[in-house]
Amino acid sequence: MKTLKKSHESDTMSNRIVHISVQLFSNEELARQVTEECQLLDIMVTVLLYMMESCLIKSELQDEENSLHVVVNCGEALLKNNTYWPLVSDFINILSHQSVAKKFLEDHGLLVTWMNFVSFFQGMNLNKRELNEHVEFESQTYYAAFAAELEACAQPMWGLLSHCKVRETQEYTRNVVRYCLEALQDWFDAINFVDEPAPNQVTFHLPLHRYFAMFLSKAVKCQELDLDTILPDQEMLMKLMIHPLQIQASLSEIHSNMWVRNGLQIKGQAMTYVQSHFCNSMIDPDIYLLQVCASRLDPDYFISSVFERFKVVDLLTMASQHQNTVLDSEHERSMLEGALTFLVLLLSLRLHLGMTDDEILRAEMVAQLCMNDRTHSSLLDLIPENPNPKSGIIPGSLSFESVLSAVADFKAPVFEPGGSMQQGMYTPKAEVWDKEFDPVMVILRTVYRRDVQSAMDRYTAFLKQSGKFPGNPWPPYKKRTPLHPSYKGLIKLLHCKTLHIVLFTLLYKILMDHQNLSEHVLCMVLYLIELGLENSPEQEADEEESASGQERCHDSWFPGSNLVSNMRHFINYVRVRVPETAPEVKKEPPASTSSDGLASSQSSRRKSLQRENLGTAQVFSLVAERRKKFQEIINRNTSEANQVVRPKTSMKWSAPGATPQLTTAILEVKESILSLLIKLHHKLSGKQNSYYPPWLDDVDVLIHPEIPRYSHGDGTTAVERILLKAAVQSRLNKRIIEEICRKVTPPVPPKKISSAEKKTLDKEERRQKARERQQKLLAEFASRQKSFMETAMDVESPDADIAMEVATSEQHVSEAIYDCVICGQSGPSTEERPTGLVVLLQASSVLGQCRNSTEPKKLPTTEEEQIYPWDTCAALHDVRLTTLQRYFKDSSCLQAVSIGWEGGVYVQTCGHTLHIDCHKSYMESLRNDQVLQGFSVDKGEFTCPLCRQFANSVLPCYPGNNVERSLWQSHSNKCMQDLVQEVEDLQEQLGTFPVSISSETNLSKEMESVMKDIKSTTQKKYTDYSKSPGSPDNDFLFMYSVARTNLELELVHRGGNLCSGGASTAGKRSCLNQLFHVLAMHMRLYSIDSAYNPWRKLTQPMQDKNSELDGIHHALVISRLLSEELPEVPVLYRDVSSLLLIQILTMPQPLHKEHFTCIIKVLFTLLYTQALAALSVKCSAEDRMAWKESGVLKKNTSSGEKSWEVLLGHVISELSKGKIYEGGETEELTVVNPDSVECYLQQFCLPFLRITSLLQHHLFGGDLPSCQEDEEFTVLASCLGLLPSFQSAHQFTSASCLDWPVPAFDMISQWCSELASFADRHPDQVKALLIQEPKWDLPRLLQLPENYNTIFQYYHRKTCTVCTKVPKDPAVCLVCGTFVCLKGLCCKQQSYCECVLHSQNCGAGTGIFLLINASVIIIIRGHRFCLWGSVYLDAHGEEDRDLRRGKPLYICKERYKVLEQQWVSHTFDHINKRWGPHYNGL
Known about the structure:
Elements: H1 2-6, H2 10-25, H3 28-38, H4 40-53, E1 56-58, E2 70-72, H5 77-80, H6 85-95, H7 98-106, H8 108-119, E3 127-128, H9 141-161, H10 170-190, E4 201-202, H11 207-221, H12 227-230, H13 234-255, H14 264-274, H15 283-296, H16 299-309, H17 329-348, H18 357-371, H19 376-382, H20 398-407, E5 408-411, E6 425-428, H21 430-436, H22 439-445, H23 450-465, H24 497-511, H25 519-534, H26 545-551, H27 563-566, E7 571-579, H28 603-613, H29 622-637, E8 662-671, H30 673-685, H31 700-703, H32 715-729, H33 731-742, H34 753-792, H35 798-801, E9 818-819, E10 826-827, E11 835-844, H36 873-887, H37 890-893, E12 904-915, H38 916-928, E13 942-943, E14 950-951, E15 953-956, H39 976-988, H40 1002-1017, H41 1032-1053, H42 1072-1083, H43 1094-1099, H44 1115-1122, H45 1136-1145, H46 1153-1178, H47 1181-1194, H48 1204-1215, H49 1234-1260, H50 1272-1279, H51 1304-1321, H52 1326-1329, H53 1348-1355, E16 1370-1373, E17 1379-1381, H54 1394-1403, E18 1406-1411, E19 1417-1421, E20 1424-1429, E21 1432-1433, E22 1450-1451, H55 1453-1464, H56 1468-1471, E23 1476-1477
Antiparallel strand pairs: 1-2, 3-4, 5-6, 7-8, 9-10, 11-12, 11-15, 13-14, 16-17, 16-18, 18-19, 19-20, 20-23, 21-22
Helix pairs in contact: 2-6, 4-8, 6-9, 8-10, 9-11, 10-11, 11-15, 13-15, 13-17, 16-29, 17-22, 17-25, 18-20, 18-22, 24-25, 24-30, 25-32, 30-32, 32-33, 39-46, 40-42, 41-42, 41-45, 41-49, 45-46, 46-48, 46-49, 47-48, 48-51, 49-50
């Protein structure tokens, strides 16, 4: 013990001790032996006692000066650091053995010592309410106090209780109760307690009370002991109830903000007291003890004590004004609500009064589920171990699961559009809401008050949804489990005059609209009345009433104590004490003060009543009433058997409100509880005479009062239910209700009927109009919201957006108008004041991850499965470019391919526009904003001012009208040759770009700056491919590749084809049109030397092959002359889609539709020839001969140029001139019949047609037609104008789309000759460089195994390939499968940790990593990162972050799909909200 206390690292030491001792003491045989031979129990208890004695201080509870009680000091290290824990834990451990516990419970000396030990904790951590200024230093000692009570007092108590389950153990209980009461008596003496608790003090720690309570509960529940034989006398019970009651009142004070000057820690204590791990050792025993006291003490005394403790006695007056000497008026309402709620709890809860363990578990579970949907693990945590861990209902046991499946439905984990990931949740079944929702239990178990509201909101939603009740319902009344016979006395509380007077007074005050009353007060008042009616004493029948009324009718207000009969008792006059200013003062006092309701039958009785009641209308002082009872009990106890000695009213005992300026007034009331209820019904429903007794229409109501229509509803329903129950229980009540309803009830505060009615009518009209206005506003708002959502918020799955966007293709002829979301002005974009689209530029390597196999790659989980990145799209494009650069001229190579498969720049927008100058001032204000943002303003990042979507640049909108976008311009009748010539001329004009670059306008400056942004978005290695660094060819290649990347990605988002048609997935959110303008403006700054212009090669047969250079030498050319001359890339080796973009972007914008179609037709001929060449290489030599011959035969037919057989024959004969078909065999087509050839050619051309159709859609508007997959080629070809007239499919051939600008055979010969000459020099490379049929599958993440354990076992001990150590935090990239050290300094390179580095190399700044030891996924995006969540869930659909719970985890395919979807659609930034900087440290 001493070593423990001195040790600096008591934690480590404790753990070591316990590791040994737990093995020693878990063996029952050994534990018993040690107990018997070595007095182990004595030693343990004594050591604990000594240990605590070292940190005792004087208790300041009650009597600060003279208190003799000592308590532990919670600020001491001993308690703060839980140093006592190993000893207590061993003690609990050995008490779990029946034989040892038995020995403990039989040993009186030990029990005395133990109670002595427990009393050290009684009243610890005393809180004193700060009344003046806020406490300077908020002490956090309450953590230590709650932990100490739970571990040192409650846990051993539960251990002992677990052995007191059968009748034979009664003696043990008697022992514990006896010594517990002795200790309590000593405690009361030590703190000098008489009958009043000291004001403004509270301690939450009363372990002696709780020991007493729990052993009582066990005695009645399990041991069949008679409660009265072990209860102390009345005086002791009165003392026992004071402190637990003080805690309940203080809870209410704390929630009313009366302790606000004590800081947040006092709220922390109030919450901990009811929190799930503590409640069954703290609040439950306290309430049970109060229930026991209430069932044995005088009910009037108990009720008045409650209201006095809650400081609301002065409020309970019939007068409209009062003075409260102990409470500020702003706290009165919540304290009154607290007092009534406490009474409802006290009278409704049956946790220890008759519920079985299974019923308790079910009630607890329903209460938690009603507050919120819960995950399985949080439910396990929230449900108190019932009533203790050893009772057999261990969370997670069979009974837990079966109750859970009975009360709740499982909601599978879904992914919400906002991006928050849902866990698998349990939600209450409909019948649970209908029958079992218990607001009382919810109130008892809520740590935060908002949870009660949440439960009510969910209940309201259920009633609306199921059509049971449309309005705002009140908490439903729930039938209770019958009381155990030992506690029947509790019912007396509901049938005592004091409570009835309080209920009557409150109903009257609510009806008269007095201040500081609320709907909640009324709700609780009605609840108490209903409880009284449900639990009325059976013996009282109507006939006996007149007799029993005689005895005590002079006892002020009500004749008897039964609520059923008191409800109909009319109270005519009440004498009240009021301030002299009150309106009541002017009344004259009449003679009679109180009378029963039925005038005719009782006139004789009334006279006798008057005689006795003369002058008894009195100030009803609850406190005086309570003193009287207290005195009676004390006197009775001091053997003066039946003499009732009235207390002499000393000053101390006068009513607290009796200050001199109060005066007495007589108030005319003339109401009974029944009449007040009926008037309340009128008041709540807002109509006169709204209540009509239902039994007048249907007598069955009285026989079967349990009608479902009364079970859910608002206040009026509650009143109807109560009146029905009152009528069912007594015929007299039924008659009186009918009588009251017959009289036309005047409106509530008596005013002239006409004006009041007029007012209510006006009110109704006004309400109706207000409602209509509201509907209109709401409808308008909803439509606005809808349109906003359509434009802004569809960052989700692109597939779902298509239908919505169909409407965007209206014809625009006028100038485009843009709204600025900052200044709110609308107008066109001008050169001086350009408007821009809010865009997010991000580098992307998603396209590079496409593979040409349809089977997705798996994440390696064994040494054999490795992933090699050779077959990815990026790798193959890279190899191709490098090979081309070896054999051909650099500048020509850089126009023969596209880059951007890795590190391409993707541009996306939310669709909102703003003036660029507005944007600059917006950025300035963000810079000066001190609030911590999740983005870096210095890097140009911001959020869209309207929709808050993440963005980092503004793309200028090109000014000008949209005439060119008119949908389908009629095809002009110009012939192909003319158009070809026009295109060539247009490409030659350099300076006719509408924005002259020499005179720089704001627009051109912005276009330049956005171009810089685009370039700086990706790393230099992804933009520089030329052999001579900084060559302009690089920029040229980069710019048209940006266009290519965006088109290809849109194609991927559409699922890889255009079959779904419709408008662009982005629709309003597409920025491709603006992007093309920016790119085109910059591309036209680089002239292509006319000799190198590929357009010539495509459209003109060369006269003289040797005249390679004519025309001007431009900057692009000079560098080549210096190096040795390499040939240009043959046309057949060039990527047609790249050529298309080069042609389009070097034309003056806006482009004419006819020129666009012309370019496509020309390029299609080249593409088709490439397809034929690729096909010819794939054929066997015999097939080649056959095709060659059949082609020659048909060559001279009229449609020779449009027949693939002829053209194929020609290609083969031309290519045969070189050494192309020599060398090793390539893969061959299996069956070479005409159909398969046709199919091959169409598949070869499709990717180009898709890209072209998208481009046409963005440049000229117009929807994309939807089609079946097998028709895609024909539909796109006709959409692009390649098909002259749409033919029926069966005789359609791809060759019929060809439209040769010059004779086909000449062109083909020319193109093939380039290959032949190349083949002579490098016969080995000819076939490799031919463009193959591209078959890329959509980009996919790696497939993960079903069970997480597979991943964990392989990776968590795997060594890193870089540093050859086992990483502390291993992670694996889900894109390529690379194993990396997270945060590992071992693999750091130039201040970049390995994950960040990998994210740049693998995903151009985007990385998706699975953290092996935590099962979660993190996303790195540039300089930020976020925790995405987990794709592995347990059987209950929950994540297990950091693998803390150790449950088996299984892949959630839906979540993984969502992750993949976000990766492909580049929406990580928009959907995930919690980003933070990683400072390169991941």
